[in-house]
Amino acid sequence: MIERPEKDEYYLNIAKVVSTRSTCLKVLIGAIIVRDDQIVSTGYVGAPRKTKSSLEHGFCLRQKLGIPSGSQYELCRSVHAEQNAIINAARAGVSILGGDMYIYGEKRDTGEVINAFPCFICKKMIINAGLRRVITSVADPKKKYMVFYVDDWVREWQEHDIIEDKYRYGL
User: Fold this and answer.
1) More exposed terminus of the chain, fewer Cβ within 10 Å: N or C?
2) Cα–Cα dist 118/1, whole Å
3) Is the pTM of this model over 0.90?
């Protein structure tokens, strides 16, 4: 019997390959957007087009400035993988409304899988882009991935403050 990965696992594996293009010195993150069972966009964490990345500079600006992970994103050279996937769909004129986003992440130095939960900025973009689900890699080796329903985020933020979010970037 030939074993095939289930669809969510299959697409998350593709996001893993996309992550290998990342230019962040700390993590490799890749994202893909799937709509109607077809990949319509990809993105990885990296410097804006035609600018120098942390890899090219040879250092992480945020580390150099002593900025803790998960804060002051505006001082990072990179655009997040989720943002790049949404931007790339827009550049191509492709609708992502009702699609699913798959996000894979790992530590660059160890290859250790991380919880690739979107940051607050990316979550807001995902909500406004009209995506349906977000499927992420998780550090827990007992789980293959986690599935988030975007409508659940909206409901949670309607009932509670954004800062009370249970699944946050960097946790």
Assistant:
1) N
2) 37
3) yes
